[in-house]
């Protein structure tokens, strides 16, 4: 009798795991449970669809349930797994449309339930008109609200990547937008000096930023809808719609109930092959924790690119192959209005927390030769370990063509290069693409000088 | 008495060496000889100035003689060094304007004479109207010809980077342009499959390509000017102007005369600190050979970015510091009409010549998420060593935003990563910047599958 793989969650991680396993072991029965209406879609694309930059919702879907079925998967849409019995190797499910319940036995199980938006425990948070944007169905609901025409003022709670992307999307639609964030600069994963540049870019687009302030309550009208956000400092921000952009936490409830151990970060503990500590149970995607290669800490990073890779790794291993997920270094990139920003490795605060002693250097340069038409400003900041000069982190901010240079820095960090080594790298040069010293190299040169000066002092 | 550094050549390498040494040892006497009219300019920018894309010649100059002088250098413009006496530590010079001659003693000497364009030994090659484009003065002369209005038909001999860039510049000026090249595809440092894409891009701009054919002679009119290029196959290509784009060779005549040893590649032999084999004599830039980190061969790569780095290394060492130039891996990038192309590491032919056994993989993807407006096509090709899977080379070709991704691949190659390691890298992802699997990662995945399939076979 053929073996059965059950996968809980049909987005990036689950979809990849299911596809890979089936591809490697065509005789495997693969059952994929998805409680939503879509599989394998780009959650990161939702803000652009809301903005209208991406025209159709269907463009966000990389693989439909029908496509998965054509590849031999047994896809159960709108079906939620409500319990896991790891002793018996069985999951309990419920069809959300019909209410029908049932069980499915498994030989291998992939837990890929993703994450849930953080909801601050304040009054009014569950009122109508308060939205998270986590799954495609959230996006659909939010867009329907905006399309209704009755929304003019939007307050976004949280100024991280998603918060700002949604804020921009609403601004593109001509709405009045305010973003509230606890930090002094938005996108707290950047250092404050880079965050200040991002703040300026956001303000340039007529998005109001309320910083160093958090949400204290949601004021709810007599109709049961949110009508304002009340901040800790006492400001009242009128809102026809409130969007939560406070980040996410791993969706681990089911795992906890089933006794699948979590790690120190709150995500499901997995090894490099994406095995949980329960035999036959794998996990991948936003719900798991990863090793940060620099801090050596376990961290939860909810990002589609990791989810895809982790799902692939789980699927290959389940399919009889061998693959590992070697960890993360915190690379992230975002476009805020006309400004691009990216980071990799450790920020100053993270490096400090990890116990590193470091110097920093930042340079302002251009994306192409300074004399070449279309050259745009780019700032590269580096964080290098004292004495050793090891590159610990980098942040890039600028206009069109700036931020993707972060990949070069990510690979340098991945390989534990020193800034002295980085400045000698054989990077591509021609006037339409870079100054003769690429901004990355100039930054490394300046960081090296900072390491040298510090060593002498 | 203070020591004296003499630098021969005031462009990228010489200018950098002189500046660095002076900065580190302010008491050093630094004499910089330059036979041309400009210092520290971007030779790579000449085609764009000829095209009119860059408005003014002066924009190409990073540092004028006056700026060097303000930094304390004794700059002798239009002054050619005509002999070196390494026993006595003296150079002989001639002022090209006045004919005055003289000598200058040195404690340290930097030889940074650059390169000279290859001139095929064919009839008519020295006729009027035949130009190389190597130094800014060449560019000035060429542009004056084009500005004269008597040029309508241009034949470019050689379809490498410079040849195509000049061809495009002439096309932008509305001229009829033909490029002749010996190879079956232009830019022979790319594999033929990538070269074919480049050929298509060139033809799309109405530049005629005559491939697998070389120049046999230049037909010279009664006025002493070139009037056609005659190819080996017997074609006669009418030309009001002929541009040589056959590449360059190191300018080593003076060094040879002075007994400064060359390496196997024909460039001046230097160690990692840019010391020649003659005590007190350093060399840097297009005239030296470098170690190719993959083939382990000595190679001459004439590129401004290396010249700058090597000059900096020589200057730091002369200034009492310690710096090394760790070699090259053959990274190059170019924009041909709307097409961007870049390469790093070894091409298939180079890998074969270096004795590697390898597999290849190529993928077509997009620069941004496929559904994102402005996503453009990108092809990434990888060459991976058999069994080990070590990444040996990569080529990237596409439209706006494609080619700079080569830097990520260059750093992966520099660090001797395998394609399996590359596919797990933590590269930046957001829809405006990449698909959820960056094209680099997809290519690595496909290359890894090729390595696996080859290993099983």
Write up what this structure looks like.
The structure is a homodimer of 457-residue chains. Chain A is an alpha/beta fold and 457 residues long. Chain A has three domains: 4-116 and 249-318, FAD/NAD(P)-binding domain, CATH 3.50.50; 119-246, FAD/NAD(P)-binding domain (3-Layer(bba) Sandwich); 332-456, FAD/NAD(P)-binding domain, CATH 3.50.50. In chain A, 26% of the residues lie in helices and 27% in strands. Chain A has twelve helices and 25 strands. The first copy, chain A, has helices spanning 12-24, 46-51, 65-70, 136-147, 161-172, 192-204, 253-258, 304-318, 348-353, 406-414, 419-423, 439-456; strands spanning 4-8, 29-34, 74-77, 79-85, 90-95, 101-105, 108-111, 115-117, 130-132, 153-157, 176-180, 208-210, 215-220, 226-231, 236-238, 241-244, 248-250, 281-283, 290-291, 298-299, 332-336, 339-345, 358-366, 377-385, 391-398. In chain A, the strands form seven sheets. Chain A has a five-stranded parallel sheet with strand order 3-2-1-7-18. A five-stranded parallel sheet of chain A has the order 9-16-10-11-12. In chain A, strands 21-22-25-24-23 form a five-stranded antiparallel sheet, with helices on both faces. In chain A, strand 11, helix 6 and strand 12 (208-210) form a beta-alpha-beta unit. In chain A, helix 1 packs parallel to helix 8 (304-318). The longest helix of chain A has 18 residues, at 439-456. Chain A starts with a strand and ends with a helix. The mean pLDDT of chain A is 96. At the A-B interface, helix 8, strand 21, strand 22 and helix 10 of A face helix 8, strand 21, strand 22 and helix 10 of B.
């Amino acid at each position: 009798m053929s073996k059965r793989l059950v996968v809980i969650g049909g987005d990036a991680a689950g979809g990849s795991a299911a596809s890979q396993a089936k591809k490697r072991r065509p005789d495997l029965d693969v059952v994929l449970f998805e409680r939503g209406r879509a599989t394998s879609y780009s959650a990161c694309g939702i803000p652009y669809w809301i903005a209208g930059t991406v025209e159709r919702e269907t463009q966000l879907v990389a693989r439909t349930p029908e496509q998965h079925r054509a590849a031999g998967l047994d896809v159960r849409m709108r079906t939620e797994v409500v319990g896991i019995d790891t002793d018996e190797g069985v999951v309990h499910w419920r069809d959300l449309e019909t209410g029908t319940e049932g069980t499915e036995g498994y030989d291998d199980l992939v837990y890929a339930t993703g994450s849930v938006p953080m909801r601050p425990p304040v009054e009014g948070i569950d009122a109508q008109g308060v939205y998270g944007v986590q799954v495609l169905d959230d996006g659909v609901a939010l867009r329907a609200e905006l399309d209704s025409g009755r929304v003019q003022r939007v307050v976004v709670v949280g100024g991280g990547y998603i918060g700002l992307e949604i804020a921009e999307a609403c601004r593109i639609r001509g709405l009045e937008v305010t973003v509230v964030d606890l930090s002094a600069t938005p996108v707290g994963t950047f250092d404050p000096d880079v965050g200040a540049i991002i703040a300026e870019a956001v303000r340039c687009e007529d998005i109001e930023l309320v910083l160093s302030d958090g949400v204290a309550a949601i004021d709810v009208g007599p109709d049961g809808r949110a009508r304002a956000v009340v901040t800790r400092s006492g400001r009242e921000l009128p809102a026809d719609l409130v969007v939560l952009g406070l980040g996410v936490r791993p969706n681990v409830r089911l795992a906890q109930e089933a006794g699948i151990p979590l790690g120190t970060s709150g995500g499901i503990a997995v090894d490099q092959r994406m095995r949980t500590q329960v035999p036959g149970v794998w996990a991948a995607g936003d719900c798991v924790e990863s090793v940060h290669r620099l801090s050596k800490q376990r961290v939860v990073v909810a990002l589609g690119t990791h989810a895809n890779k982790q799902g692939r790794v789980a699927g290959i291993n389940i399919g009889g192959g061998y693959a590992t997920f070697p960890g993360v270094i915190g690379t992230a990139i975002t476009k805020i209005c006309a400004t691009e920003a990216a980071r990799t490795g450790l920020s100053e605060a993270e490096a400090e927390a990890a116990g590193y002693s470091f110097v920093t250097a930042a340079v302002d340069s251009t994306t192409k030769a300074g004399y070449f038409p279309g050259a745009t400003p780019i700032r590269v900041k580096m964080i290098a370990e004292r004495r050793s000069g090891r590159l610990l982190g980098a942040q890039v901010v600028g206009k069109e063509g700036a931020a993707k240079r972060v990949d070069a820095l990510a690979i340098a960090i991945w390989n534990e290069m020193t800034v002295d080594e980085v400045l000698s790298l054989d990077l591509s040069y021609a006037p339409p693409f870079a100054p003769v010293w690429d901004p990355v190299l100039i930054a490394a040169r300046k960081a090296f000088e900072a390491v040298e000066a510090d060593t002498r002092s």
